[in-house]
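pinned: reference chain
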Amino acid sequence: MSGRQRVVVAMSGGVDSSTAAAVLLEEGHEVVGVTLKLTDASGTAASVGGRCCSPRDIDDARATAALLGFPHYVLDHTAAFRRAVIDDFVAEHKLGRTPNPCVRCNEKLKFGPLVQFARAVGAARLATGHYARIEAGADGTRLMRSRDRDKDQSYFLFGVSPSVLREVTFPLGDRTKEEVRAIARRVGLPNADKPDSQQICFIPDGDHKAFVEARGGAGRTGELVDELGTSLGAHAGTHRFTIGQRKGVPTVDGQRRFVVRIEAATGRVVVGPRDSLLNRRLRVAELRWTGGPRPDVWPMRCAVQIRHHAAATPGWVAAPDRDGSGSTVDLDEPTSGVAPGQAAVFYDGDRVVGGGWIESAIGADA
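pinned: its structure tokens
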């Protein structure tokens, strides 16, 4: 950004968003801080331990704003968050899928209210502490990987609409995590050494099963079976499993087994050897195209990332269905852990081209 501008900074209470605000101030911009309250963690361990959206985190964001001398606001979107993210999370588990609430939150909720707030206060941009980059190209706004590949968060952002991304900046995109903490210490931020949150913000104790069960999302009980249909014992609900899971899965003939398929309708959880987790073809729904118009050359060559920390695998994306909502992806090499409900994000080098939500996977020999 050139020249002095008013910028709204989305502040989670963590070191990244706080440092983003400090960087913008040092560049001469006028900063306005805002925190989205998405869950009510009062009375839980998160209220004192420090988790995203907790009272402690709101206090940390407010303390940073006071130290650096800019105004700070809190917007309560707990009801919208419950409908768009929590209810989806529970419903997906009941269907035997593996949802990614952070991607859904960015896609369905978080950025919309923040951009609207930025417009309302006359800001030129919304800034966040995400590790990603924005570039302007002849074909539109480009979402790019961050310089720090270990912290890159572009995977979580593929669903944010191009019209919103045009109004967003990521001040940390060209910095490493170590550089960010060094800046935070230099300016004396109170959360400079605050650990990164490791839990889903609305499940501060990390017990996904209990959370889903308490909200009516328990899947059918049934049997654990091997790939030939032989029963290996009963289980307490399909929501307790995810593709690739080892914990809670019995060994067979002394060999470790993993969850390879979840049949929510029948209650069967199919387990098999590690090789059975390999897939090279997947169906993707709810396609999104980031930045420019939808590609018009098919099949499209790209690298496909199926989890946040997974390496992107080269492959081909087939022409979308007639209604544009779904497609088939063929990977050059089989990859493991393809889980329905997770995001599949398409990259051209460092650029996010688009992505979608995994519907199903086909085995390595397809």
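why pinned: The helical segments are 15-26, 46-49, 55-68, 78-94, 101-120, 162-165, 177-186, 208-214. DSSP finds eight helices and 17 strands in the chain.
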